[in-house]
Structures are given as structure tokens and as C-alpha cells.
Amino acid sequence: MALHSSHGAHDGRPGRGPAPRRPVRSARSAPAPVSRGLRWTALGLGALVGLLAAGTLLGQEPVFHGEDHAYRVVTVADGLQNPWGMQFLPGGDILLTERPGRVRLIRDGALLPDPVADLPEIGAGGQGGLLDILLHPEFGTNRFVYLSYAKLRADGERTTAVARGSWDGNRITGIREIFAAEAWSDRGAHFGGRMVIDADGYLFLALGDRGYMDESQNLRNHIGTILRLHDDGRVPSDNPFVGREDALPEIWTYGNRNGQGMAIHPETGEIWQNEHGPRGGDEINLVRPGLNYGWPVISYGINYDGSVLTEHTHMEGMEQPVHHWTPSIATSGKAFYTGDAFPAWRGSMLVGGLAGTQIARVTLNGHSYVGEETLLSDYGERIRDVRDGPDGFIYALTENRAGEPVGKVIRLEPAAHD
Ligand SMILES: [Ca+2]
Q: Residue 384 C-alpha to ligand 1 middle, in angstroms?
């Protein structure tokens, strides 16, 4: 496995456009599917060997042996192109995004062939495109669905924006932009994009540094921050920088490099985040208002070319991460596990890894890191998002870095130890 083999972000391949879409195998009402033989030819011999190794040709699912639990990996849906975010609807159906600009629905266990939202124009390309999807905590009554995405401007620059629509049972309707960040750039990297809404109804959005790392310390724009908004995009009057002339009022935290995962702790209600370091120095952070998380003044990482990025790992007035990974696993989406299927894992923080092709199951003691177990290490897929399923299983999105339509929704289920 090559970690960060090229200069640039390890999260994607900037400049690479979306690949053509292929038919989806698991669609319940799909048109006549391409034959399996043709599909494997298209995927290449390497993928075929991988499928053989995984036992899927024999209808078996690979079983992995963790420290406390054995688990099998079940493919819920495949044929996806850079799936990025995933949410469970009441009843267990799944809404998910594909980065080129599609919202897909898994209904009764089958991926429907057609997208289920008419989106605003999405600035897809590089790491940008349609990003996260989020249901409002009061979804049962207001039906609100949030989407984050790269917004394209006439001059070709992009930023991260949030739109809100309503779920009508079959589609997301009435989608309109409620917020666009001051983070415009013609660069293709570090859009952030992960969202959560807390119990008080505030929407939090992670913004990356867009390739301008020093701007993460500049409060006059939204680059390298976490923002806090009302659920309709307005600015809360009690945000930490409201009233300061040298700061934008949406900012909740700053000095963040590229937040790709956020999750609310199921017991404390606290927001936890993980962000990509440069080469090394991926971080887990506890998100608290007004704080400076240090990028790029302090970091445990180095430049992609191996040179020193900063001499400092600590500085007064800047937060230490709860944990950092060197080498980077390229942290992605995250979740806290609350299910019953894997009792020994309950309370764990699950962190996806892209380059690290894993789910890191992190044990915390309060605000302290205790240790971690690497899940899916032999599975060999980039993990883009992790979710705590309502059925007690763990769900994840996998992707191919080149943007080929081989992404999957997978589910970890308990398996008997041999
Ligand atoms: Ca930091």
C-alpha cells in the first residue's frame, strides 16, 4: 500500500473528472444488467482476483477476526462512484451521496437505479463534488435533509456550500442553498464538508484549508474552520466570534486543516472531529467553541516532500489533538458505536481510513485516547464514511481513488469464531 505517494492531498486525485457510470448490479428495478463476465472484464483482472480471494464468487462473505469479535463483511450495494456520505431513514432505508453529484436510495435492501434528488449545480472534480448528507434531528416532523457540496462560481472557483430540502418519501424536493462559505479557490483540494446537527438544532460544518494553509489562522474567511449555523443557515448570535471586526461570525473553531469526520457523542453530546494531517499528523479533536486547533503553526505531520512543515507540535493558545496518526490513515467519516451486535465495541469511536484502508476502532476514556483496534485491515478498501446502523451493525462506504464506479455500501455483522 502506497501512502501519499505523490505530492498533494491523500484524499483524492485532483483534476480527475468523474468516470462514466456503469449499471448497478444490485438495483431492484434496474434495466437489463451487463453480464457478469463483461463487468469483470471492465473491472480488470486485479479486481477479479480480489473477488476470488474474498470468496464472493462462491457466495461467501469474508470473515475477519478482531480482538473481541469475529465479523463478516456483507455488501449491501455496489457499483457506486465515490460514495461520500450516508444516512439512515426511519425504517432502515439508506440515503447516500455520490461525489459526482447524485443522491441514491437503498430501499428494502436494494439500490434504486435512479437518483432521488434534483440538485443545484455541483462543482465536481478533484476532491470536490457532492459531499455529505444529513437528516435533521427532528426529521420525523420536519423532513429536512441537508447536503454539502462544492459550489461552482462563474470564474471557475469553488467553495463549500450547504443546501436543504425535504424528503417526500421518495425524493428530496425543494432543495435550495442555505449557506456558502467564504472559502473560494480554484484549487481542487480540502473542501471539508462533513456536517452534524446537535441536540439544540445547531448545524456544524467542517471547512478545509483549500490548499492555503496559512489562511486557517485567518478569521476573516472560513478556510480551515468548523462553522456553527442555525438549521436554516443563519448565524447564531452566541457564536464565539460574533461582534469581532476581525472575524466572521459563523466560525466556531479554527486552525483546522481538513475535517473529514464529525460525530456527536451519544452520551455527552460533545462533538468530535477528525481531520487530515499533511504527511502524518492526522488528528482526532474534541470540538469546543472559539478554540484554535493550530494548523499550520503546530502539527505532528511533515510536508508531502518530506521537508519540515513546522518545528512546533505544541504552542500556548493552541489545542492538542486527542490523538494523532503518523503515518496518516487519511481519516474520513466517523461514528460512535451504540449497537448490540458487537457488545465489546459499544462506546467505541469508529474512524474511517482512506489511504489506511481501515476502520480504526478507538477506545476513549472521557476525553482521553486509550487505544485502537484496526478493523478491515485485510479487506483492502478505502473507507469514506462509517455509520452506526439502527440494526446494530456497522455500515461503511468504500471507494476507488480513481473514481471508478466500484464503490460499495458494506455492513459488518458478527460471525462465529472458527
Ligand atoms: Ca491540530
A: 21
